[in-house]
Design a protein that fits this description.
Length: about 500
């Protein structure tokens, strides 16, 4: 088999595959067997029909088409390995030449076009300077932490007044699309302002009282009609407010290991500082990506983005030319560029994903989607999305390598300590150094024990916070059976004469 590649653009190639008759023969034999099992010929048992009879009844041209359809996926996969191509999206395939049906002389020539991952030169990031906000903890920050803790020990009391921000309500919901009820739920407990239900519900029910009803329009977030705009009817059951315990020494002893409220506030101040430091890391991550993307040109495959925009708008029940598509396209293109950049860093830094890191990320993702962990993993396995999850975690670790080599200062000129967040990558680097030394037969130098941190959790959180549209640009290796022209055995060129004319000619 011979292959050649023509670069149509930085993100698209034409792959030509030439298959000789000898290489096609095993697929011809398989095609004869399959056809023998599909047709009936008087005097012959099903599956035992000789090839010459099949040629007479069906035509050798159909057998050749079936053979090419059966083998095209194997030829395609072998070709992209030989040419070291990283395909993206859905390829299209044409069979431009076939062996002569009478003599079986001549080659089968398959031409496949596909988007490919662009090749980029990774910009240098050692010594990158990044300025972030100052992590300054105010008294209000500590008060917020304390109120959050008090809320965990609060009690709900039914009140007879209009709904206010922060209240808990019991509601019944009914969703209607084009006059048809598509979903309903009763007795839902909801905290106003939590953002855990449909967009627009807070404004709709604010100031209502028990037993009052109203309607509003919102986009459905799940189910068969996910993404569709629906009319939502909501009825208020009960209105409850949360009573918080007094912030005193008794509360400190009940809610923590501290004896006094002063000690508890001191610890909460440290927690607030950790949150602000995490926010600094998040900010540094975004700024680092911006700086690196400004230094490198990353072409974007138009076809891949077109498909992502179309699918996104379709899920939302919007027209293909809806103005929202402009925003979706911008986000998809930005996400694609970020992914390509981070994947190059993964290769440069030899980033590895540990099992416990992946597990932590999956647990957090399952919680985010409101699913049991095993149920979430099962869905990922069924849809072949586990590799994408590994990629998410790897990219979150990749940016930590960049930050570890950067100079991060706050607005006051103070260096930001991110060692807690980069501990996991340093542990991996130390292990690799030990492996290299062991491979050379040298005794590895003793390394100081790494301080126990939450770095792995942070890596998973970082991946979880990545742009949702990254899934759109996730690298795929599409089998030719899934191409636009579908050259698959039972669904393609050999299926019917009309299909053959449309797909392969």
């Amino acid at each position: 088999m011979k292959t050649s590649v023509e670069q149509l653009s930085p993100t698209r190639v034409k792959l030509t595959i030439t298959v000789e008759p000898a290489e096609l023969k095993p697929y011809m034999d398989a095609a004869y067997k399959e056809i023998a099992n599909q047709i009936q010929v008087p005097g012959f048992r099903r599956g035992k029909i000789p090839a010459p009879i099949i040629d007479q009844r069906v035509g050798r041209e159909a057998v050749i088409e079936q053979a090419i359809s059966e083998g095209i996926d194997t030829f395609y996969q072998q070709a992209i390995r030989e040419q070291e191509l990283q395909m993206l999206g859905r390829p299209t395939a044409d069979v431009t030449e076939r062996p002569d049906a009478k003599t079986m002389k001549g080659n089968a020539v398959i031409v496949i076009e596909s988007d490919v991952r662009p090749t980029i030169e990774l910009p240098k990031y050692d010594g990158m300077k990044i300025k972030v906000d100052e992590a300054k903890v105010e008294a209000a920050d500590v008060d917020a932490e304390l109120d959050e803790l008090r809320g965990r020990f609060g009690t709900l009391k039914t009140v007879d007044r209009p709904i206010a921000e922060g209240d808990f309500v019991t509601i019944d919901l009914k969703a209607t699309v084009d006059g048809e009820v598509v979903d309903e739920a009763n007795g839902i407990s909801y905290e106003l302002g939590s953002g855990q239900l449909l967009e627009g519900i807070d404004d709709a029910i604010l100031t209502l009282t028990a037993d009052e009803e109203t309607t509003f329009r919102s986009t459905l977030l799940g189910g068969e009609h996910e993404g569709a705009e629906a009319e939502i009817a909501v009825k208020i059951g009960a209105v409850k407010e949360r009573e918080l315990p007094e912030a005193d020494d008794d509360f400190a002893q009940m809610a923590s290991e501290f004896d006094t409220i002063a000690e508890l506030r001191e610890d909460l101040e440290k927690q607030a500082l950790r949150k602000k430091t995490f926010a600094q890391v998040e900010q540094a991550r975004e700024l680092a990506l911006e700086q690196l993307l400004d230094k490198v040109e990353i072409p974007v495959p138009a076809g891949l983005i077109d498909n992502e925009v179309a699918e996104h708008l379709q899920q939302e029940g919007k027209a293909a030319d809806d103005e929202h598509g402009v925003e979706v396209r911008k986000n998809a293109e930005q996400s694609f560029r970020q992914q390509i950049l981070l994947d190059e860093i993964i290769k440069a830094e030899n980033v590895q994903v540990e099992q416990d890191e992946l597990t932590q990320f999956l647990l957090q993702s399952a919680s985010q989607y409101g699913m049991a962990p095993q149920e979430f993993v099962n869905v990922l396995q069924q849809t072949n999305q586990l590799p994408a999850m590994v990629g998410e975690v790897a990219r979150s670790k990749a940016i930590l390598h960049v930050l570890d080599k950067a100079e991060i200062l706050d607005e006051a000129g103070k260096a930001v300590d991110i060692s807690e967040f980069t501990a996991s990558i340093k542990k991996q680097d130390d292990a690799e150094d030990s492996d290299h030394e062991a491979a050379k037969g040298e005794k590895p130098a003793k390394k100081p024990a790494a301080k126990k941190t939450t770095a792995k959790k942070t890596a998973a959180k970082d991946a979880e916070a990545s742009d949702d549209t990254e899934a759109a640009a996730e690298e795929k290796k599409p089998a030719a059976k899934k191409t636009t022209r579908k050259p698959a055995a039972k669904e393609t060129a050999a299926k019917a004469d009309d299909d053959k004319a449309a797909d392969a000619e």
